[in-house]
Amino acid sequence: MNQGQLFVTQNQQQYINTWISMNYCKKWDIWEGIREILQNQMDGITSLIGKANIRVIPFGPNQNDIKYQFNFIHKDTNETFGQILYNEVNNTLSIWNNGKLETGDLLLGGIKDQLNSEEIIGRFGEGMKLAALAFVRKNKRFSIITDGKLWSFSQKTDNNFIKNGQPQSCLHWKGGICNIERYRNKVTIEITPFLLDEWIPFIDNFLWLTQRNVGRIDAKNNERKIIGQLLYNKFFWNKIYVKDIFVQKTEENNGATSCYFGYNTDLELDRDRNAVKN
Question: Which of 36, 147, 150, 220 could form a disulfide with 178 if both were Cys (CB 3.0 to 4.6 A apart)?
């Protein structure tokens, strides 16, 4: 994985409108974007080797005792199936896993169907597009590199769409060719500028990335299948995770702790990952 700036050898086309208004999903911010990208990465790796075979290894420099780069390897073969890398020189977060996307996957509803597996977290293919929307709104460069091709996203107005007499601002994408062979047979996301202080606070929102000591008590159904967990660590008090991803905190009484453990459970959430309150 090259952590430097991408070099594009050829622009294949002009920017194309995705037909997604920049005003769509106004509540989506940096957190929603990074949540979708890391969820997609885990789904991609899980679909190849199964969740039980994934071992996540943090590495690199520490920042407040938290390592912020990660290898995803097969626990038996030690083969690498994905990485999360951070380049402090150009403030770029790079996330990749083995796989391939096609231009048809850029369509709303065009993403390949996920495997019919309870291990797969993702349910909505539009998450990747909305992640691009969220990052572009925050003036960050969002790029997808797949099989030697580079797709970059930008905010542009389109005179074909008028409202109240004004052309509408939409999310656009543009294709190019990346000259770095190591990107082939991988799906890579690059986000820049993405400050280290922006990235590190999100790490504990993913239980497969957190480096905190997580004590777990499993809850099982009548078939002995794990359907949830209690998380015993002061850091996780009052927190609700769904399939290892942070969703929300439980209510507090005047700022006081109301629950001396956290929950990790399996709920069907809507597109915005809203959990059931209380």
Answer: 150
